[in-house]
């Protein structure tokens, strides 16, 4: 059986009586054609059973339909889950993704960005914290960040301040004698700093006894476990007999603390209440489900990709309109009350 001939732009031009230039404009810049002509060409593609040659189209217009992603790590469950949600948007937006893990190495991330640009990506989503947004804003493609410093670029973030306030309020309602917040070093220009600020503001506004513990806990279970174990010894020694309400800045670290308490006492002691942040799967699947301030990860991912697609489409126009100011979308958190605060 003879192999069926691929339909070419020349075939479509002859069928529609348009020029090959007009057919090319349909694929590369459809807004330059009238809706009537777009429909004529669209109907012709169906009639001719046209199968798009992706490689040829990339060579013709330089548009790859690829988006780059740089994330800090996959240890924290928030990053792995939001990456999964971003990748799942392919069915909605049709963009494919090239992913690099930064591991907090600034020079590595710059190298990754150069490599992504060499692949002609059309835009980039960045969750890592190492490269300033002023530098990212100089890149020749649209950038959207999630939960990181974002002064000069578009972003989608959780309302971290609201979340921190909710956590402190919950622990206060449980009549805890001491409220404790455990966090990693966080710059004030990072959205997650709002968790710490809100916790501190709530305690001071209500004249509550509290302590804020800032310690670099590392990016693996092996590094976090001994450091959180040291914190637990401090809490046991300093607040023996007191009801302790503990708010940790991530579900990952909240789960480490919970495991250490259960290993030490055989159960979660009555004088410990734990709240995490993220609503990542580990909070639901822990040996005791962990109360948490939930980031709406599905919505964060969707809004980030949607905003990026909006900016990429604008950039493709012959007369694109630059933004006067970056767009910053804020998603409210949702509180999930589970067994670690059921006292």
Characterize the main sheet: 6 strands, parallel
The share of residues in extended strands comes to 15-25%
Helix and strand content put the structural class at alpha/beta
What is the mean predicted local confidence, pLDDT?
90
Structure description:
This protein has 343 residues and is an alpha/beta fold. The protein has helices spanning 9-16, 20-28, 35-47, 54-61, 77-87, 90-93, 106-118, 133-136, 160-173, 193-205, 221-238, 251-265, 281-285, 297-316, and strands spanning 66-71, 96-101, 123-126, 143-146, 154-158, 178-183, 210-214, 244-248, 272-278, 291-294, 328-331, 334-336. The strands form 2 sheets. A 6-stranded parallel β-sheet has the order 2-1-3-4-5-11, sandwiched between helices. A 6-stranded mixed β-sheet has the order 7-6-8-9-10-12, sandwiched between helices. α5 crosses α14 (297-316). 36% of the residues are buried. The mean pLDDT is 90.
Topology of helices and strands:
Layout (H helix, E strand, L loop, with lengths): L8 H8 L3 H9 L6 H13 L6 H8 L4 E6 L5 H11 L2 H4 L2 E6 L4 H13 L4 E4 L6 H4 L6 E4 L7 E5 L1 H14 L4 E6 L9 H13 L4 E5 L6 H18 L5 E5 L2 H15 L6 E7 L2 H5 L5 E4 L2 H20 L11 E4 L2 E3 L7
Parallel strand pairs: 1-2, 1-3, 3-4, 4-5, 5-11, 6-7, 6-8, 8-9, 9-10
Antiparallel strand pairs: 10-12
Helix pairs in contact: 1-2, 5-14, 9-10, 11-12
Features:
343 residues; six-stranded mixed β-sheet; elongated; six-stranded parallel β-sheet; alpha/beta; 12 strands
Summarize the structure.
The protein is of the alpha/beta class and 343 residues long.
